[in-house]
Design brief:
homotetramer, 304 residues, alpha/beta, Rossmann fold, five-stranded antiparallel beta sheet, 10 helices, 29% helix, 31% strand
Chain lengths: 304, 304, 304, 304
């Protein structure tokens, strides 16, 4: 009789819903100034980064999350040269951004240096050497403050943040005021993309509130979503644009742009995947239409 | 300090992956001739039917599963009059089928009468009175035997089965030989649809094997998939067709047919949802291309 | 590969300590006016009664709990004729009491009639027909009120209650005021025994507070404890006496009394077991000496 | 709404019984040549050493386990000068042994040097500097081989081993043949003590088999047991003696010997504790009487 797995990470999505991940090895466990960090080896998903009790990315499927966050926005912009990342800990977002040959400069601003250092040490494949690329600059500070003070503008700004927990570091980066700052720092054809909460229809209010808030700031705001196995959920993203209509990005056009840019090695994203990601099921569309919440600094959003 | 939830249903997808559902009330627990049955009230998803330790459907999102299984096939067929269901326990599939006005006869063949009776008693909204519709006939027997012996043919045949567990009742309904029987009993424009395993890229071999097997029997075989929150997974379905190409079913055509048939009340399925369901991400397409397994009676498929 | 157990009852003793019991069958689940009730079949301990999320007794080891609660007090009293039980739901306490041949009358006062009826239906071996014994009287009302109003006195009074949860029915039956009422209703050689919380040294404050409180009312108060496997804990009991010193009850005397009373069939209790139960380890004795809390109606005790 | 604890160690005692320990911090996780090792900080019990998925000792209650294992044997022997430990990883057994002033030499033979080094690094209070005591010698090798080859004899031999798992390092140290080797290496008044399995009446066969096996080798064999909260169980020990009858060790005599040896600081063990430990409840005595298994090298004992 074999002994069952005895080390578990249990991720609660609500007080009565949770996912259990059997752990084969604890790699690192600590507390930074901003959040708790665990790096564990799970039997099923390989190495995982866990911040404040939530899986951020897993070896076996981080390609889904990171390709989904990065490429739709990068493909939408005709010539992305200057890109900024709000958050971005593991560095995998930079790895994906640098696949686009027009890139001249990438600035990543993450408040938690310790997490970035730990990821570089224990999850080096995530950034794939991107931190050493001469076009990349890392700043460890509050990204909102950075954006307010910088004189630069960006073609694409990504927000790759943990969920807005009430004692976590990110909740002021999900408000109307923050999106207004982003808007100002985008170049005229600028685009923003971000992860924006679960697509589980019973937990969708976080996503719909973010989309509704952004639609007060940007003329074009599109929801999209990918199933991330290690999240046990279809996860929502938002693409916002100042001038270019994301609705014009057809399946064929996506494939054509990827080909022109000689981006061949993607595992998840291409034209048909784009069509899947941006086709929204009826129940979610209905939920979005009903949403009228605007997230603001003095009325922030918190998730469980 | 509040006491945490103490009644849990833990659904294992592998030995080291599981989902925990907090239970507010146990409704029914028993063992039929074929499988164990629990009906529980969960805090998050409402009432759930659990067979052999796997959630089959949940009050809060059974509409996703059942609309996804039924409507693509029904819309693809120009005039579905005679429909058969292999399995179908809860009766929600009939509820959806009867929304199509052309229906003249529905035959449901489920091996486990006890489950059907329990569902009708404890989950009556699932069938919504469909069992009493005069066009509906229930048979409690082995569906394969029924199909082999019947003289009838059907416009659409649905397979709504539990997963093929090695000691469960359904594994001989997932083989090439079975699909050949189905093929023979379909009318010339006949269509088949079935649930066909997880779309989790690390567990996709069940789905790809079913599709590959069916492609030896049917000229047209399409994968599609929906995220089912209570399964904590994107779930795969397969649509097979004798003559009509599912690829011709565009978003606009789906909406037009639903309108013509005066089917307005769906919560999940419409043209855009159809586009989402049938657009397959690149990683899954690659996995499908690599698949060469053919499931046969003497080489059956078993899942965990 | 066998599928792991999927139905679990998880009993939390603190927010970060819990015991998992695999369930083979849900028998009953409901909510009375006073508490939630589950009756389940566990793989390991057989049938279990669970009130407000806490196992009360289990088929495989209820003999330990019930013999431990009943026989020390019954043996201590030279001629127990009239006995009262505060609580007592399952009826197993009466089953044990009736083994003493001097018994003329047993009064059990439990506030929750539904629990008693459910136990009699689903756990009939627990009472073993005792509810039908002509010497037994059941009252369904607040036991404190009953004691205050009755004109009777008793030789032994047992308290067989659930733990004092803040929204549970029993917390006013663990106070100095209540023990004073008990004292008055005991005959001159009267004895009281009760379950009184975990003996886990890290959770012992419940037990020590009860003992300290009772020592303000009774001249003789002794702690004793038994390991109850289904509680995953050594569990505390308290024996209080008006006149007879429990310290005089030696191992030999216990065996002699049991023999005189022709009580041969006990599975757990005899002279040597008595010596084990009443020998207290040094760490617990130290904790008891430090305790100065007195539980009172306006300063009641609540456990997790 | 607070987020529940998300890091758990789940210790299975059977396939359907388990204990959950919430973890505040992972300290160390690794695999030695012989076993897996985790050192974790639990919320409730402080630091814990876990070998092959089983808690070996916990900061908050290791004193119970170690005082119980060591002092009865040490007190029984009139003048223990030379002591050997089979196993003993954490070194806490030496800490307790050295409290007896007659000690001249302690030899500890543990097969797993890595565990000893890890314990010294992460759990230094366990050995309390004992590894540096000049009377102490550590050997890292198979203890059975050591005993077979040594020319020395010992007054007391302790066995402080993990449970005999079928792929673990200890099962050949629980057989008749091994106890015969121990017998030969004991001085004429020699004594042996060991941990010997759960006292849970439903899992007692491990303990009773060990006692029965030892009684074929030693003239005096006594069971005793202590409740160890972090084991969630009353745990069995065995005391075997060549010449001195453990039954003569009364409560008063224990206190007298401890006083003579000026051992004042024990937290758990004294005369009354001794009486508690060595008084065995009736159900266990009955189980012991029925036991006739003899554990031998070619018929070894394995636990779950």
């Amino acid at each position: 009789m074999s002994v069952p797995t005895w080390k578990w990470f249990i991720e609660y999505t609500t007080e009565t819903q949770a996912h259990m991940h059997g752990i084969s090895k604890y790699i690192y466990s600590g507390q930074t100034r901003f959040q708790t960090v665990e790096i564990v080896e799970t039997e099923f998903f390989g190495r995982c980064l866990i911040l404040d009790g939530k899986i951020q990315s897993a070896e076996k499927d981080e390609y889904i999350y990171h390709e989904t966050l990065i490429h739709p926005a990068m493909v939408l912009h005709p010539n992305p040269e200057r890109v900024m990342i709000v958050g971005g800990g593991e560095g995998a977002v930079i790895r994906e951004i640098l696949k686009h040959p027009s890139i001249k400069k990438v600035i990543m601003v993450d408040i938690d240096k310790e997490v970035v250092v730990l990821c570089d040490k224990y999850l080096p494949e995530w950034n794939g050497g991107a931190f050493q690329d001469p076009r990349v600059n890392l700043f460890f500070m509050d990204a909102r403050k950075y954006l307010e003070e910088t004189q630069e503008t960006f073609d694409v700004i990504f927000s790759d943040l943990t969920e807005p927990l009430d004692d976590g570091p990110s909740y002021l980066l999900f408000t109307r005021e923050f999106y207004e700052i982003v808007y100002k720092k985008l170049s005229p054809e600028g685009v923003m993309a971000l992860q924006s909460g679960s697509f589980n229809i019973n937990l969708i209010d976080c996503h719909t509130a973010i989309c509704n808030t952004m639609s007060r700031v940007f003329p074009y705001v599109s929801s999209y979503a990918a199933f991330i196995p290690s999240y046990d959920a279809q996860w929502g993203f938002t693409l916002a644009s100042k001038k270019i209509d994301p609705g014009d990005l057809t399946e064929g056009k996506v494939d054509q742009i990827l080909q022109e840019r000689k981006i061949n090695g993607l595992k998840y994203y291409d034209g048909e995947t784009h069509r899947h990601l941006f086709s929204i099921t009826k129940d979610v569309r209905v939920a979005k239409e009903k949403e009228n919440r605007i997230i603001e600094d003095d009325n922030p959003l918190f998730t469980f």
